[in-house]
Amino acid sequence: MRTIGTVVRGIRTPIIKEHDDLENIVVDSLLKAQESEKFEFRDKDVVAITEAVVGISEGNYATVDDIAEDIKHKFDNPEELGIVFPILSRNRFSLILKGIARSTKKLYVLLSFPSDEVGNGILDEDKLDNSNFNLGSVIIEEEYRENFGDWIHPFTGINMLDFYKELITAENCEPVFVLSNKATDILNYTKNVINCDIHTRYKTKKLLENNGAKVYGLFEIMNESVNGSGFNDKYGLLGSNKSTEERLKLFPRTGQTLVDNIQKKLKEKTGKNIEVMVYGDGAFKDPVGKIWELADPVVSPAYTSGLEGTPNEIKLKFVSDNKFPDLHGDELKEAIKQEIRNKAADLKGQMITQETTPRRLTDLIGSLCDLTSGSGDKGTPVVFIQGYFDNLSND
Q: What residue ranges of the chain have pLDDT lower than 70?
């Protein structure tokens, strides 16, 4: 009888560099791990590769100058620009902001408050509650500094408004900061706008366009090559990361070809139907720092077909408490196993099937992978998962 359910392994690989053969590196690393750890491949195992090494291996990079040139082209050499709802991140946005500042002479920056889209704070919420301002207010920079300017992030020790102001000024661009949760407030300053939000990007762009703005979403900047640079035709600069002080790694473009080819090779090598996906940020929130991890436009930009959909599971504690309140031990376990075997798709939505957090398989598995690999020095850009699709009835 099996006593272990889902098993997750971080797989160490060589350090991935530009134009490396990632497809063969992933397959070879899995086979070496299997040999050293003595596990057996099974149908419905999952192999996941972090988007970082996918983007690196395909050489999908752009420079700050590439960004500036693309913006100048799209806005016809603008004297001034406005940006709406950028996230507060040195890794995710500082080089993008540098490129935007390099493209114009005056930059209006509209920040949401009390935090950005993914939970990075910009002011003390207790002070906000005790001030004359509320979430519907417009707060200019002088008012911000007088009332909230001493705020620093508890993890980084940085005030990102100060950091962004210094960065913009260093590009010989004049910054003007405004805090507001209403995107159209930027139009009081300029009609040339880049909306930088991630998950509400289409709604924000449409709202600004309907109010007379000339607007591009961040997903439309670097959506095609500039002087031979990398690009992402679907996501543009969304999902990018800082590589050097002048270069960004963009979200990968060739992920679907990669996962399909790896699945085919693993079938040839192991005889098993193994699912493969590319993952970026997971989708979860830090309860202390209040940061929502998902700064990528999606958790998984590419995956094989067996990972489509949502889980079809029954809620064990509900079944145990309500359907079998008088059963215990092995008798209860066998009754629940039979209940699992009898479950049907048409039960979805009923209380017996309600998961704690109903989400897509790729979002759940991608979040598991992100927590496993981390973003630091573990050296495991590949994650191998077994038993994820098993349940209590599988012995």
A: 1-2, 288-290, 311-358, 375-376, 391-395
Mean pLDDT over the full length of the chain: 89
Query: Which strands sit side by side in the sheet containing 46-50, from one edge to the other?
Result: 7-11, 382-386, 46-50, 275-279, 302-303
In terms of C-beta density within 10 A (0-12 exposed, 13-18 middle, 19 or more buried), how is residue 190 classed? buried
Per-residue model confidence (pLDDT) at position 315: 65
Q: What would the pLDDT profile of 111-168 be if each residue is shown by its tens digit?
A: 999 999 998 999 999 999 999 999 999 999 999 999 999 999 877 889 999 999 999 9
| Residue 126 and residue 102 share a domain | yes
Please tell me whether residues 258 and 371 are part of one structural domain. yes
Q: Are residues 243 and 259 in the same domain?
A: no
- The residue segments making up the domain with residue 209 are 61-249
Same domain, 158 and 222: yes
Q: Is the peptide bond before 114 cis (omega within 30 degrees of 0)?
A: yes
Residue 349 lies in a domain: no
State if pTM tops 0.70.
Answer: yes
Q: Do the domain assignments include residue 274?
A: yes
- Whether residue 293 contacts residue 306, with contact meaning beta carbons closer than 8 Å, is answered with no
